[in-house]
Amino acid sequence: MRAGPSQEEVRRHNLGTLLRYVHVHGATSRAELTSRLGLNRSTIGALTAELTTAGLVSEAAPRETVGRAGRPSLVVRPESAKVYAYALSIEVDRLRAARVGLGGQILDRRETDRPRGMQVLDAVQPLSSFVHEMRAAVSGDARYIGTGVAVAGMVRRQDGMVRLAPTIGWVEEPVGAALRAELGDAGQLTVGNHADVSALVEHSRGAAAGCDNVVYLYGDVGVGAGIIADGRRVAGHGGYGGEVGHMVVNPYGRECSCGSRGCWETEIGEFALLKHAGRSDQCGREAVLGVVDAAMRGDSQAQFAVRQVGEWIGFGVGNLMNIFNPEAVIFGGTLRDVYLVAAAQIRSRLNAIALPACREHIRLRTPELGYDAALIGAAELAFEHLLEDPMLLA
Amino acid sequence: MRAGPSQEEVRRHNLGTLLRYVHVHGATSRAELTSRLGLNRSTIGALTAELTTAGLVSEAAPRETVGRAGRPSLVVRPESAKVYAYALSIEVDRLRAARVGLGGQILDRRETDRPRGMQVLDAVQPLSSFVHEMRAAVSGDARYIGTGVAVAGMVRRQDGMVRLAPTIGWVEEPVGAALRAELGDAGQLTVGNHADVSALVEHSRGAAAGCDNVVYLYGDVGVGAGIIADGRRVAGHGGYGGEVGHMVVNPYGRECSCGSRGCWETEIGEFALLKHAGRSDQCGREAVLGVVDAAMRGDSQAQFAVRQVGEWIGFGVGNLMNIFNPEAVIFGGTLRDVYLVAAAQIRSRLNAIALPACREHIRLRTPELGYDAALIGAAELAFEHLLEDPMLLA
Q: Could you tell me which InterPro entries the record lists for this protein (chains A, B) (predicted)?
């Protein structure tokens, strides 16, 4: 229990709230800020002036004023080109990097394949090179805020230790420390879980904008979730919550890479789909898309594979709906492609499992930001420090 | 996104925070309030004076001052005898009612059996009689705050409609409206889910005090959970979250009262235990305790039953640990008794399912407040209005 804030705390909170608003929603008129934030016009003016002086926002007359009476309200924009973070994403098959401006624009990007089995030090080097390349192109007056990293695994937030990433093949690997050492002067670096950061971005500016209760699923070889309850991430005690891929759904099922048996990801992950399709010799996103395409073209074994996996997707989503009663479930990664071809199957199965009250307002969605969600989400880890207290870095 | 509060909002927030602190923690010295709430001494003095005038707290010299130097700090207490709520609990086998004082003390109580199959109107009448009886014994200067109701089912919070309570046998029953009509002038009445309100109480003043991430399980015929993530209830969009009893764990299992198959409660609820023990002709808490006692005395069929159910308890708890990464799991209702005799079995199974990072700080617990948690929790539904803004009711 915490007492109410002081005047000074309120002012800093309001600065952060205004900056966060334009960071998430983009250019916004003073008039709209006044009504959205519940502050009066002079307060909005003073806060905007302070953020402008700090180089975090700029103000200009709106581009479209035709047909409106009176003096148009100034529009406040985040300084996307001048305030930026680096975002790195370590995925099963890809290593990706981007420079992301305040406001969530991707200003520059690089990516390369990640051969399965690649070790931490071998992954850190290309990522570091990407950052150095992108840095060379940055103009002198742009301000670096920090670096955020998304890893498809369980991450200890305070130091970036990857506790377990079975699909990447890493256990207790100090990814944060390795990247900090390699990037040298790159300053503040924060590591988070890939599904968690993607979920937050789809929640703030994507397919689940306006929804307070969201389950964002991300699948490839493994399956993870970023879960939002009442507008906030369900992190758990150590930050390891959301490991829905290791919810056991079939006690009589296959062994899982985690050591257990019948985990959800053994039924809906890439390996299961390819096995049902008779393509166990293949792997990766292209192989999954190959099965989905074949199913759409009428290939009966591919259709069988999609049906089998669709059944189990509906099964697990039904369970999660009973547990979380979300407004939206989002299918990311290759689960997106499987969802698009198996939607009827999934709906029918989850209708049999989810209780009526838990499914009455449910929306099943695909991501709006696709694979960019992880990069924008990684950048959010860095921007978060700035948004919490914009004057700390002024 | 919301801007920071005004001065007046801060004052009201601080009044609520102080009142909530003594409501949860009991008598607290001004010195401790100063340090816990992060406010200075004069502010604490002013807030206490205001709450005293409103009749919500009282101040007195501490009882024990021997051996301390200086003037002892005054102790602030909630006015438990003078400010109260009624709490009602509708359970599978019982109807219970209590008068609960501010601070969570049960001042008076009544209960009776609820025959299985009893309809809403038949349940409302004895509860109403209990309230009228208890009201007759209340002194004239005591202040009534409201009535809270806990129901073992899915409840729409805004109007107290019970959407689905399969173990009680109710579907779309207007329990809130029926109680309001019967209680007449009883004022504000709020209905909540039994496991949810119990969880909040074990979290604030029971077995999970100090834990921010908690799964509280309550079992009898059915199984429900109240889930706390980062200190807040996971309610879901309509308030129906936590229906873990309808997480399907055994796709090849028995039909469930919800219409699905293999739900967790079909494997760990009362019916499963009694069936494995060869006692399907019995039902209720006494019958469950009979099996547990027999298992402890060495009865092999009872031991078999407890082992079977223990396996499935561990199974589902392991799933929930992967999903929520809680610090504490609490076993309430008859699950408490089964847990006590099957703890080793449960531990062993959940160790096989929960990921290492998700189980490294886990504590498995029995409730501290037992069956009183639902009554105290129901009263909290009424007190919540007061704690949100103590001056509203002044």
A: ATPase_NBD, ROK, WH-like_DNA-bd_sf, WH_DNA-bd_sf
- In a mutational test of the B interface, the residue from A313, A323, A360 whose CB has the highest number of chain B CBs within 10 Å is A323
Nearest to A4 among B13, B240, B250 (CB): B13
Asked if B268 and B185 sit in the same domain, the reply is no
CB contact under 8 A, A229 and B244: no
Residues B379 and B358 in one domain: no
Contact list in A for residue B258 (CB cut-off 8 A) is 355
Same structural domain, A22 and A150: no
Banded pLDDT at B66 (limits 50, 70, 90): low
pLDDT of A38 strictly over 60? yes
What is the amino acid identity at position B269?
G
Taking CA atoms, A193 is separated from A91, A98, A183, A200, in Å, by 11, 17, 20, 11
| Residue A51: strand pairing partners | none
Q: How close is the nearest chain A Cα to the Cα of B374, in Å?
A: 20
Tokens for A14?
Answer: 């309001």
d(CA B125, CA B120): 9
Total domains in chain B come to 3
CB pairs under 8 A between A and B: 201
- B333 and B224, same domain (yes or no): yes
Q: Which residue has the tokens 């006044």?
A: A34
Distance from CA of A224 to the nearest CA of B (A): 10
Q: What is the pLDDT of residue A2?
A: 64
User: Would the CB atoms of A236 and B356 count as touching at under 8 Å?
Assistant: no
Domain assignment present for B223: yes
- CATH number of the domain at B162, please: 3.30.420.40
The residue range of the domain holding B154 is: 83-197+372-393
> Which CATH number is B49's domain given?
1.10.10.10
Residue with tokens 């309850």: A229
B328 and B234 in a common domain: yes
Please check whether residues B233 and B357 belong to one and the same domain.
Answer: yes
**Per-residue pLDDT reduced to its tens digit, A222-252:** 999 999 999 999 999 999 999 999 999 999 9
Residue A348 sits at φ, ψ, to 5 deg, of: -65, -40
Residue B175 covered by a domain:
yes
Supply the ipTM of this predicted assembly: 0.94
Closest CA to B372 of B112, B194, B250: B194
Distance from CA of A140 to the nearest CA of B (A): 33
How near does any CA of chain B get to the CA of A119, in Å?
Answer: 21
My answer on whether B357 and B258 are in the same domain is yes
B contact test, residue of A158, A325, A364 with most B CBs within 10 A: A325
Q: What pLDDT does A186 receive?
A: 60
In this structure, the answer to whether residues A236 and A347 fall within a common structural domain is yes
